[in-house]
Amino acid sequence: MKATSVRSGTLIAVAHGSRDPRSKLTVDTIVERVRLRRPDLDVRVAFLDLTAPSVESVVDDVAAEGIRYATVVPLLLGSAFHARVDLPGVLDAARVRHPQLILRQAEVLGDDRRMVAAMRSRIVAAGIDATDSSVGIAVAAVGSSHGPANQRSRALAQRVLHGTSWRAAVTCFATAQDPRPDRALACLKEAGARTIVIAPWFLAPGLLTDRVFAEFSTLCRDAIAADVLRDHPLVADVVSSRYDAANDLTVRGRATSERSA
């Protein structure tokens, strides 16, 4: 008789979505790594926009299967509109459709130290010696209309230098104005950097990363492009931690309310 695995929970990994097929392929590899890391969980993938399956359809499937609890982990690097407004609105509507299903939203992946370490690892994998003091890092982030999210992205630059001898690092944005790649490049050269590395603060490649790399190539033809974060093992580690943290808070909150009842 074939044994069947018993899974202890459902994790829905939610990515932004993109018209670029490379994005979905990359998200699928990230989610597959999470599955390998967490065989105890039923791990599914959904997208907020432009890519199937949608969050709505995945949640509907989960509810139709009689599952009572599911935790949604946003595969997002910033806590801005999509994490604060877009996804919560989708989940609130799902709760109305499926009152028997308890949905928890975990924290975004964000600028967790492990995500920063994954970016640093991608830079080293591009052939950059951690002891090379001639290196300047341009951390390329998407940018947001949410000011605090941009500020956290700016702070990444100094954090990526930790444990290295690299000369300097500056964050620039693909969609925000302060600073743009040209200003970031000027700052790195003013600091004495001779080797320029573009470190994309993106989970997956797509139209925005192409735009950033193209802009840098016109500004500095010798710039070295590091890879996006992709399915780095530390990314799956953070996804797993976000799931556990959301459920730990839910369990503790329920216990507190029961004690006070």
Q: What's the main sheet like?
A: 4 strands, parallel
Radius of gyration using CA atoms only: 20 Å
Question: Number of domains in the coordinates?
Answer: 2
Helices and strands, in order, run as EHEHEHEHEHEHEHEH
Mean model confidence by pLDDT: 92
Could you say what the CATH topology of the largest domain is called? Rossmann fold
Total DSSP helices: 8
What overall geometry do the principal axes of the alpha carbons give? elongated
What's the CATH architecture of the largest domain? 3-Layer(aba) Sandwich
In the sheet with the most strands, the strands line up as 2-1-3-4
Classify the beta-strand content into a percent band. 15-25%
**Helix percentage:** 40-55%
Uncertain regions spanning at least 5 consecutive residues: 254-261
CATH class of the largest domain: Alpha Beta
